[in-house]
Amino acid sequence: MAQHVLKSSPETCHWGYFDAGQKPVMEIASGDEITIETVSGKPDTMPPPGFIVPPELLDIHARLPQIIGPHILTGPVSVAGAMPGDVLEVEIIDVALRCDWGYNSIRPLAGTLPDDFHEARTLNIPMDMSRMVAKLPWGVELPLAPFFGVMGVAPPPNWGRISSAVPRAMGGNLDNKELGPGAKLFLPVFVPGASFSTGDGHGVQGDGEVCVTAIETSLKGRFRLTVRKDLKLPYPRAETPTHYITMWMDPDLDTCAKEALRDMIRLVTERINISREDAYTLCSLAADLRVTQTVNGSKGIHVMLAKTAVHGQ
Asked: What CATH number did the domain enclosing 147 receive?
């Protein structure tokens, strides 16, 4: 098993989109570990002097055009042997802050309450990297829990170039705070090599991400990328050390809830020999339906079911 490092730069990043035709910036073997550096923020979100700013972020502002969506993504990384119909297992081994600040933005006509706030606002929020807390302007310290808002593979080629803002079957802007260190994300593969990209670092986020952003910041993540030819998934799934997670994204939260629940019922019947009716009952007794986010065009629901509820103690 080899270990690789992919630094963020104008040559290794793409701003605002996923595209099956995009050439990978690195190829690794299935099962290899890769450390990926990411950056976040437009020029108008930069902090005052005195804070740590990754130097390549300014270079990216100067040289890399923003296309369609808001996220600066590092990649794509090709994983040898991945083919359409396979699944890419993304194991998140570690996530670390790269700087001591982040930002949060409110925009008119955006977010969960698009008609309630009429002035744009960006807050720069200091983060104590040793104590792992954010210092909010009104005096509260909020514990940090970093994770990547965007993790995705290339979309099907016939989709063309798509925005990084809307999560879809290839993953992307999932904004699921459960996908921190120790979690695994399972993404269906649509192109040879899978073409994995990540970015949209978050210092901390609540379920919903209601005002459009979390604490947006620059992160470094260590991943293990493994091709799974034994799995066939039409849509992303995930798991943590303690829970199975199914998910769905759609403009209608009712549709999200139904489809994410249907997939959890499938997951349960795949793992233990019970009927769909029994799996439905189990979900009613033990599964939690959580609102992932309500701000990305397609909203999200993720269903969490403790592994002990499936397999026993």
From this structure: 2.60.120.580
pTM: 0.97
Task: Give the span between the Cα atoms of 205 and 201, in whole angstroms.
Answer: 10
Token representation of residue 228: 């799974």
Length of the chain: 313
One-letter amino acid at 166 equals V
**C-alpha separations of 19 from 68, 130, 133, 269 in Å:** 12, 38, 36, 34
Tokens read off for 293: 């986010």
The count of C-alpha atoms lying within 13 angstroms of the C-alpha of 194, restricted to the half-sphere facing its C-beta, is 34
pLDDT along the chain (313 residues), means of 10: 94 98 98 98 96 97 96 98 98 98 97 97 98 97 98 98 98 98 98 98 98 98 98 98 98 98 98 97 98 97 98 88
Cα gap 140→134, rounded to integer Å: 8
Please identify, among 200, 228, 256, the residue that sits at the C-terminal boundary of a domain: 228
